[in-house]
């Protein structure tokens, strides 16, 4: 069971076949590695111990290769304002399987939440669940503030630097754009300011009006970076005899340049087992 581990060391040893070193030249254009063998799973289920155990034991990844995202309060709450004992037990127990590490959820509202508020939310995760948080999942990221041309580059680079410099080796930075960013600015600044993973797709499998995966085309610029820089999350993919959508979704995902994936039947992330299958 790893605590306060370095994802860099893990990447270059046990699972080096899929992950590349996050620091240094990891984002050099032209890099290539194998497509996904791991998951990034949002599991906002109230800290149900059985459900967390089921997810943490099912994901792929010896040496903590996968990620599970925790959201204690739910909605946009993240870690909340005080520790939660049941969540602490669930998060702590995830490490016994040595398959996944836990990220703390923090809402950014497309760059509109003040930096100080986001930083306080980041700090709470590490303070409330010491030794168990391997990084931060910054939700609702965007190139610009919605409805404007105001760039969010400096905003997210400041948050990445805040996480990377303040929390030792437990400093993974995941930006959830949900839709493909317009360029690679989150990878081309510096080790300190860059993201480690971006969620380049989040949406339904094929539900109209819910950003269907069946209409998504991965942009060409992403193919110039390692697959381990990218993740996709698909929800609303029910698994029935008539429409076995998780399997169909996985078949599509295997053709794409993604290091981490997740496919779930429910339209929300508070129902387990959210993980429907290993792609």
Q: Could you give the distance between the termini? A: 25 Å
CATH class: Alpha Beta
Helix content: 10-25%
Strand residue content = 15-25%
> Would you count the extended β strands for me?
8
Helices and strands, in order, run as: HEHEHEHEHEEEHE
Structure class: alpha/beta
- The fold-level CATH name is TIM Barrel
Low-confidence residue ranges: 1-34
User: How confident overall, as mean pLDDT?
Assistant: 84
Question: What does this protein structure show overall?
Answer:
The structure is a single chain. An eight-stranded parallel beta barrel has the order 1-2-3-4-5-6-7-8, surrounded by four helices. It is built from six helices and eight strands. Strand 3 (100-107), helix 4 and strand 4 (135-139) form a beta-alpha-beta unit. The longest helix is centred in the middle third of the chain and has 14 residues, at 115-128. Mean pLDDT is 84; it is low at 1-34. It has helices spanning 7-12, 49-58, 85-94, 115-128, 153-166, 245-253; strands spanning 38-42, 66-70, 100-107, 135-139, 172-176, 197-204, 230-235, 260-263. Helix content is 23%, strand content 16%. The chain has 279 residues and is an alpha/beta fold. The protein has a single domain (7-16, 35-263), classed as TIM Barrel, CATH 3.20.20.
